[in-house]
Write a structure and sequence with these properties.
homodimer, alpha+beta, about 55% helix
DNA sequence: CAAGTATTTAGAACTTTTTCTAAATACTTG
DNA sequence: CAAGTATTTAGAAAAAGTTCTAAATACTTG
């Protein structure tokens, strides 16, 4: 939702790992969970936070809910970070 | 120190605001504190976390401790984020 | 529609983070 | 060195975040 939510969402290692998994493509909640030693309920909690931060979105098919990366918000984060580095983004990348 | 510490450090709004302040240049702990409605002890706590994450470093002069941005770590963060966006950083920025 | 699978929600326990107050340390200068 | 200013440390209280178990919801298919 907001800038602050995105940073909060990214601050947890489990959630970053979930995002890494989703680089490969959409994945059901259950599949995601199978990569962790945690209950499905806990995974669901993390997915909710990622969803709230607009870092993922879901789509339903049959009995599954598939989660997918949403990278649009990352742009904003990159801009903020590069602003710390003293200005323009493109100018720095040679 | 580690990747995870950097994200943790960036997850707090106060700390992000401190980094924003430091864009203008080095600042003493007291000066930084004067921008917030918090005790100096709390500011000191946040500075410690930023320092541990290598996002700032300090230098002493007279009776003051000046804090300064250290942007080198941000590179790593940017790389991780851009990797989520499906690969190369420069290739995406047109 | 009943039974089964997938996922989420609720609520409690535990852990971590943030903040404060009070005291300690560090340095400067008369 | 004493007094003053700047900052940090310690420890406690409060707030926020993470995880679990148990139960609820949602959807699918025989």
């Amino acid at each position: 939702m907001a800038f602050a939510d995105t940073f909060k969402a990214l601050s947890d290692p489990v959630r970053r790992q979930i995002l890494d998994l989703l680089k490969e493509g959409p994945m059901s909640a259950g599949d995601i969970g199978s990569h962790f030693d945690m209950t499905g309920a806990t995974i669901s909690y993390h997915l909710k936070i990622l969803k709230k931060a607009d870092l993922v979105f879901e789509s339903r098919d049959k009995n599954f809910i598939y989660y997918q990366l949403n990278t649009t918000v990352l742009e904003e984060i990159m801009l903020w970070i590069s602003s710390l580095k003293g200005g323009d983004f493109d100018a720095e990348s040679k």
